[in-house]
Write a structure and sequence with these properties.
The chain has ten helices and 16 strands. The chain is an alpha+beta fold. A four-stranded antiparallel β-sheet has the order 8-4-9-10, with no helix packed on it. A four-stranded mixed β-sheet has the order 11-12-14-13, with helices on one face. α9 packs antiparallel against α10.
Length: about 400
């Protein structure tokens, strides 16, 4: 998985510590919100341990400023006869489609040629383009620096570090497009690299703490082809012969919490396809299309429920409840998953609800059995998985034929 990664430093004179600013971004895809991650740390310093550095950083509030720019549109592969040509469809540039790593020409890297002239989507494209591409080395103003390059190192796996392969920015025109933290690429951005510039400022006096740090993304991919519509399962005869019966649709969906969508768990997936902004758009669209009367979701991250799912479902006419897992050790606020349930407010009203925490049930069971400390530890290690459950009792607002009031 490819990440754009760069760091820059600035010194805190009074303690001899150094600001360490890190910036990372996923590959941009049209219509999918891109939110680069900026982090600032303190390193070094006289007699400072990690805890002391963290406290010092907390005592000096800071903020980031973002500046986005768009470069010119370029063909992704330097082979002019590349079968993918000028297409930017994500499925053509997935790991499965490429069949291996993208390559860069090390001769071009040594010569300082622009990245868009030295990157190839596959070994085959590099071989096919070599006869024409090699002429660029002869014409390069830095030809002397590559004369002794070993033929065994003509090409290498594509690297995303700006420091390992600086883009020749003098050969590119940049247009400023955004100054917010998040940016959603549009059709105008497809095929263009984005430049992201971040600076850290002191909240006290607006002085520069670190930066600016600049990274360059891969060319923006076009909006993915919508996935095929999911086939719903009907239960034949479910209400046959039941007086006053009503039909309703239930949806159950494990949406894969972002904290579990890692490259270690899904090494065959491209990083952009695992990113929550990309998956969120598809999930929300599907929930709207399905029009379920009752919707049960698993692996719902707490912050995603608050920021995205709850407001979205509320606008669609749903009421809902959320219960997160028992554990709080998994990181910062919101980075714990749980279960969410929604129901259409024009069809149902909640009359009762219960939460079940299986950790607590396990502790109660261990106490009932009179286990000693060692046995309790083994018992809890086996059964404590932070799992939870929701029980919600809904009352239908529909009136069965021949009846009055609610059912």
């Amino acid at each position: 998985h490819k990440f754009h990664f760069h760091v820059k430093m600035s010194t805190i004179a009074e303690v001899g510590a150094t600001y360490f600013l890190t910036l990372r971004s996923e590959r941009p895809v049209q219509d999918c919100e891109l939110a680069p991650n900026a982090f600032i740390q303190l390193k070094g310093g006289y007699l400072l341990d990690n805890s002391a550095r963290a406290k010092l950083l907390e005592s000096k509030p800071f903020y980031f400023s973002f500046l986005w720019s768009r470069g010119p549109k370029r063909q992704i592969c330097s082979n002019t006869d590349c079968p993918r040509g000028n297409t930017y469809e994500p499925t053509h540039w997935s790991k499965a489609a490429l069949g291996g790593p993208e390559l860069i020409c090390n001769v071009c890297e040594r010569a300082g040629l622009p990245l868009y002239e030295a990157s190839f989507c596959s070994v085959n494209c590099f071989k096919e383009a070599w006869r024409v591409h090699s002429q660029r080395h002869v014409c390069s103003p830095n030809t002397d620096s590559v004369k002794n390059l070993n033929d065994n190192f003509i090409a290498d796996e594509y690297k995303e570090s700006v420091e390992s392969f600086p883009i020749n920015t003098s050969a590119m025109d940049w247009t400023q497009i955004c100054s917010e933290k998040e940016y959603t690429p549009t059709d105008s951005d497809v095929g263009c690299r984005l430049k992201i510039e971040v600076t850290a400022y002191s909240a006290a006096d607006n002085s520069v703490l670190a930066g600016p740090v600049i990274i360059y993304t891969d060319p923006v991919l076009s909006a993915p082809t919508p996935p095929p519509k999911r086939r719903l399962m009907a239960i034949p005869g479910a209400v046959a012969g039941v007086a006053g019966a009503m039909r309703f649709r239930i949806i159950s969906y494990n949406i894969l919490a972002e904290l579990y969508a890692t490259k270690q768990a899904y090494p065959y997936c491209d990083s952009w396809s695992l990113a929550w902004p990309y998956r969120r758009k598809i999930i929300l669209n599907e929930l709207e299309e399905m029009q379920g009367d009752i919707v049960c979701l698993q692996e719902v991250q707490a912050d995603h429920y608050e920021k995205h799912l709850s407001p979205f479902m509320n606008e669609l006419g749903y009421d809902g409840m959320y219960k997160q897992k028992s554990s709080e050790f998994m990181g910062q606020y919101g980075k714990v998953d749980g279960c969410a349930a929604f129901w259409k407010r024009n069809k149902f009203i909640m009359t009762e609800n219960y939460s079940i925490e299986f950790n607590e049930i396990a502790r109660q069971e261990a106490a009932k059995r009179g286990l000693d400390e060692s046995e309790i530890r083994k018992f809890m290690n086996r059964l404590s998985r932070d799992n939870i459950a929701q029980i919600i009792v809904l009352e239908s607002l529909a009136r069965p034929s021949g009846a009055s009031g609610r059912s």
